[in-house]
Design brief:
The complex is a heterodimer of chains A (288) and B (160).
Chain A: E1 5-7, H1 12-21, E2 26-29, H2 35-41, E3 48-51, E4 61-64, E5 67-71, H3 76-80, H4 83-88, H5 90-97, H6 102-105, H7 110-116, H8 123-130, E6 133-138, E7 141-146, E8 151-153, E9 156-157, E10 164-169, E11 177-184, E12 195-204, E13 207-216, E14 223-224, H9 226-232, H10 239-252, H11 263-286
Parallel strand pairs in A: 1-3, 2-3
Antiparallel strand pairs in A: 4-5, 5-10, 6-7, 6-10, 8-9, 11-12, 12-13, 13-14
Helix pairs in contact in A: 5-8, 9-10, 10-11
Chain B: E1 4-10, E2 13-19, H1 25-32, E3 51-54, E4 57-60, E5 73-75, H2 88-95, H3 105-118, H4 124-130, H5 141-159
Parallel strand pairs in B: 1-5
Antiparallel strand pairs in B: 1-2, 3-4, 3-5
The chains are: A alpha+beta (288), B alpha+beta (160).
Chain lengths: 288, 160
């Protein structure tokens, strides 16, 4: 096998130019917890590896006027220790921290999780529910798209050749907002979601004034379930509203049958997780 | 294809090496530097036998390229004992028979040290979750957990 070339540029412009020069054989290396496994299995054979961990914009968390920006290559461990994020976006933090073991957390990033484009990626539903905007830089410059627009199918993204996911920008958090992510796995740790559900909502007293709901592992990509959010807004999160949102989640499911779960099971669980995640998000909203 | 020249620190000593891009840190440690304490189990980040500490973070040596070690501070199982003086975790693992075949042991020791360096007073649940990425197929988990809890208490006592 031809050896890949390793580069570790210190600027995004350099990284983009390197990727563009690789004629499609370049791969971005962040934490490497997916890429190295794929290289070893022979499913990825990059000619050029562009390590982005020397690019400050991609490895830092910053806050400006209440809006957080998380570099795409920041490790799960660093995100998990960030006091500001833990307070403002506990659902994102818990979702990122569910990825793999302590060892994997030391390397794995939210950007890598997004670009690996697994329908079962844990951090993606939380980012989608949060309304995260993804900054992308490529040969044609910079653009921003919602997190739910990055994945095109299992293992596929909408990124153009040479484009790099740079960071996630989270919206300013209104008072009394909370988010949560839950996944179902048949054990307690170290597994891949059978279903994942992210909820982010804002409360005004007992009434829900804004809500976004997302589902993972029930379709070729993570889904933003707009009808579920609409069913919650204006309600007091009463049983009727929760059941309507759960029904919207079940209706949005287009899962597959596989060893992790059947279509029927995944569809049913999507509604169950919605109700539980909404309850946790609401509790956090009240105490925030 | 030219090799990458890497300057790093391993167990406090400056180390330089040349590596191919596809070589992991674990490959370099074991095959080039003769540090064979870190084991390769799965090679895909699932078993934790290759656990090392890089810039204070517990990672799998099999999931990091040798080239990425440039400028890093690496700690391996070889750096755990001070000469002939075993680290309390090593001593207690032996005394409490927290190992059988031993292949997973260096990884468990390094991971446990990373935990106690960070959290000197972990609950049993915290220990179990922290070590969830270290697999022992002789299934000595209970003895391992008990040994780690014991050492944590012992180190807290010493620190007083």
């Amino acid at each position: 096998m031809k050896e890949a070339r390793y580069t570790a540029p210190e600027t995004l412009d350099e990284a983009v130019a390197l990727l563009a020069s690789a004629n499609g054989s370049g791969r971005v290396l962040a934490g490497g917890t997916d890429l190295l496994v794929q290289m070893r299995a022979g499913t990825a054979k990059p000619g050029l590896i562009v390590d982005v961990k020397k690019i400050p914009e991609m490895t830092t968390i910053t806050e400006k006027d209440g809006s957080y920006r998380i570099g795409a290559a920041v490790s799960g461990a660093v995100i998990g220790e960030h006091e500001g994020l833990r307070k403002a976006w506990p659902g994102i933090v818990e979702a990122v921290n569910l990825i793999g073991s302590t060892q994997v957390q030391g390397r794995a990033s939210a950007g890598g999780n997004l670009c690996n484009a697994s329908p079962a990626a844990d951090s993606v539903p939380a980012m989608v529910a949060a309304g995260a905007m993804v900054t992308i830089q490529g040969p044609k410059g910079r653009r921003e798209i919602p997190a739910e627009k990055v994945n095109a199918g299992p293992g596929r993204t909408t990124l153009a050749p040479g484009e790099i996911v740079v960071s996630f920008t989270l919206p300013v958090r209104p008072r009394n907002s909370g988010d949560a992510y839950l996944r179902l796995i048949p054990r307690t740790e170290m597994d891949i979601a059978v279903v994942g559900c992210g909820v982010s909502l804002t409360m005004d007293g007992d009434r829900c004034t804004a809500a976004r709901v997302s589902l993972g592992a029930v379709a070729p990509t993570v889904l933003l379930v707009e009808d579920a959010g609409k069913a919650l807004v204006g309600s007091t999160l009463d049983d009727g509203a929760l059941e309507a949102a759960a029904a919207a989640c079940r209706a949005a499911c287009k899962p597959i049958d596989d060893k992790r779960g059947t279509i029927v099971y995944r569809t049913k669980i999507a509604g169950v997780l919605l109700k539980r995640a909404a309850a946790i998000a609401a509790e956090r909203a009240r105490s925030h | 294809m030219s090799k990458t020249h890497v300057t790093t620190t391993i167990n406090g000593e400056p180390v330089e090496f040349l590596c191919d891009t596809s070589q992991t840190v674990l490959d370099v440690l074991r095959d080039q530097l003769g540090l064979t304490g870190s084991k390769e189990g799965c090679g895909s980040g699932d078993c934790g036998a290759c656990s090392i500490i890089v810039d204070g973070r517990l990672v799998c040596g099999c999931l990091m390229l040798g080239a990425e070690a440039e400028g890093c501070r690496i700690e391996t199982i070889e750096g755990m004992a001070a000469g002939d003086h075993l680290h309390p975790l090593q001593k207690r693992f032996v005394e409490m028979a927290a190992l059988q075949c031993g292949i997973c042991t260096p990884g468990f020791l390094v991971a446990s040290k990373a935990l106690l360096d960070r959290n000197p007073n972990p609950t049993e649940t915290e220990v179990r979750y922290w070590l969830a990425g270290n697999l022992c197929r002789c299934t000595g988990y209970d003895k391992i957990i008990r040994a780690v809890m014991d050492v944590a208490a012992e180190l807290r006592e010493t620190a007083r």
